[in-house]
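Late entry, evening session. Most of the bench is empty. Finally got around to the prediction I had been postponing all week. Sequence below, unchanged from the version circulated by S.P.
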Amino acid sequence: MAKREKIEKIECECCDVVQTHEELIQKVEGHLPDEQKLKDLADFFKVFGDTTRIRILCVLLASEMCVCDLAEVLSMSQSAISHQLRILKQMKLVKNRREGKTVFYSLADDHILTIISQGMEHVEE
């Protein structure tokens, strides 16, 4: 059985009285995206909730690679890599290009580099 990390219990503090601040509420309501955009954003971040997909993205930060190379580097089957790449491609996080019989994958754009870099920075604090 795998050893579980002890998670520190952090309690959230609440107000001692119920009091709303109308000017703050109105300001925020005007900036809140619509429900569909929020759902799309949540779905986007769900993709980052899988260690295998994060590993693939980290490899692709260094170099574009074909499925065979990704499978070798990550010690996984080509089928498992292909499955994860399909999800990453659907979410527009990776792109591919064909060179003869080989298909190379790379990050879709610099936004992905920024997201991974900032996420790593955050967890390393």
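Two things to note before I forget:
The radius of gyration is 20 Å.
The chain has a mean pLDDT of 92.
Will write this up properly tomorrow.
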